[in-house]
Amino acid sequence: MQFTGGTDFAGRYWPASLQRHGRRLGTLPIVFIDLTLHFVQKYKSMGRKPSRKPATTRKPNMREAILCAAEELFSINGFNAVSIRDIAQAAGANPGSVTYHFKTKDGLLLEIYRRHCGPMNRRRSELLAAARRVRDLQDRLEAIVRAYVLPAFSSGSDLAGGGARFTRLRAVMSAEGNEAARRIIAQTFDDTSHAFIDAIYESLPHIPRNEIVWRSHFLLGALYYTLVTPERVSRLSRGGTDGADAGNAIEQLVRATVASLQAPALDQPQAQRRRTAPAKN
Fold it and tell me: Can you list the residues of the chain whose pLDDT is less than 70?
């Protein structure tokens, strides 16, 4: 093949001296050698398997990992005792990742409440709406109390409906009295709490609303304690009942709460119940 032009097949420019040299080589011009090497290299590269990067374990969503780690630590150690560094270490992250996603520890706690309480409050509202349609006042009261209690037990995933871990966290936050936690709790639960108190008052109009507030407060404490320390029931019953049996715990809470709600108000005389002593022989 004789090369006579100023450019080769690839469009590259060749100086005149190399053009003349190529013509002197006759059937083996420099451009032929150059292109031959090019095609050989191309052929080798076609047969070569593409290099693969070493397999790496896919990291979970860092934001989710931080939320889970913070919730676990808060539920065990409380809010005040846990630092940003503690959360980062538990999540396998660096402290900068925590502040990037949530700004502050308060922001992290607020997001934990949001992700749990959105589903839980919606479920409670759905059950409450159904309970209010029950005609019989006794059955309605039981349905209202069950609508409040059930969502706290309804999911072992610790997401939909709340879960035991989040309820532990709520109990610890309430006990600590941290101002930020108190503000987040009020922001999250007050509207739903007012709706339940109003519904109970409609079923028990002869009981002052202020007393219903107290009795609802006792229900919340019983709910916390039942979820946080179920082993205490098993221990004190000497194995006669399983404190971790959610179904039984729900029914026990509902019955005890309904009975307490129906007790006479403090400013009302309690009905005298005479007990006849057994006759002595």
Answer: 1-60, 155-164, 269-281
Same-domain status, 211 and 235:
yes
If you compute the radius of gyration of the chain from its CA atoms, what whole number of angstroms results? 37
Q: Are the C-beta atoms of 31 and 11 separated by less than 8 Å?
A: no
Element spanning 227, H or E: helix 209-228
pLDDT tens per residue, range 88-121: 999 999 999 999 999 999 999 999 998 888 888 9
What DSSP assignment string belongs to 14-78? --HHHHHHHHHTTTS-HHHHHHHHHHHHHHHHHHSPPP-PPP-PPPPPHHHHHHHHHHHHHHHH-
Same-domain status, 150 and 238 = yes
User: Is residue 82 located within the same domain as residue 198?
Assistant: no
pLDDT of 154-182, one tens digit each?
Answer: 754 455 445 668 878 888 888 888 898 89
Residue type, 155: S
- Contact in structure between 73 and 86 (CB atoms under 8 Å): yes
In whole angstroms, give the CA distance from residue 201 to residue 208: 8
Phi, psi of 7 (to 5 degrees): -125, 160
**Domain-ending residue, one of 103, 127, 160:** 103
Cβ atoms of residues 217 and 142 within 8 Å: no
In this structure, the number of other CB atoms found within 10 A of the CB of residue 149 comes to: 23
What is the rounded CA–CA span in Å between residue 68 and residue 159? Answer: 11
CB 120 within 8 Å of CB 157: no
Specify if 14 maps to a domain.
Answer: yes
Supply the DSSP string of 24-39, one letter for each residue.
HTTTS-HHHHHHHHHH
Domain containing 92: what range?
60-103
- Secondary structure letter of residue 162 according to DSSP: -
